[in-house]
């Protein structure tokens, strides 16, 4: 028996990519955005094929992602931001609901979304992870978009 394997592909020359960045904890979001843009450039994405929008916070990201998905203009989307634990239950609500919203949009529209919404206990943890996580989220979105295309070609 021959098992067919679909190889991983993180090339983005042919892709249109939308990025949603949260302005809450904005300095961290900006570092994440720089990491995402660097990874996309390294993957061959043209600057003109990337659209970046900002939203007030992580809870607003799913709505912007949904609208971007509805346009049909994007092959992949990326969500960036940071939710840092505070002294109230609000952290749990924002972290859980933003993740659920992102997953819902991804499944509803069949468009890959790299979830780069950091959820950390401290600002220091978020700063330490920001650049790497932004880049990883972008590459996850690209890899999954390529995978969806490869599956469709089967």
Which architecture of one domain would the CATH scheme give at its second level? 3-Layer(aba) Sandwich
CATH level 4 superfamily of one domain: Lumazine/riboflavin synthase
Name of the top-level CATH class of one domain:
Alpha Beta
- Overall pLDDT: 96
Segments where pLDDT lies below 50 for 5+ residues? Answer: none
Shape: globular
Fraction in helix: 40-55%
Strand order in space, largest sheet: 2-1-3-4
Give the N-to-C terminal Cα separation. Answer: 18 Å
- Structural class per helix/strand content? alpha/beta
Instruction: Tell me the β content.
Output: 15-25%
So how many helices? 4
The CATH topology of one domain corresponds to: Rossmann fold
Number of strands: 4
Q: Main sheet, how many strands, which sense, barrel? A: 4 strands, parallel
- Integer-rounded radius of gyration: 15 Å
Q: Helices and strands, in N-to-C order?
A: EHEHEHEH
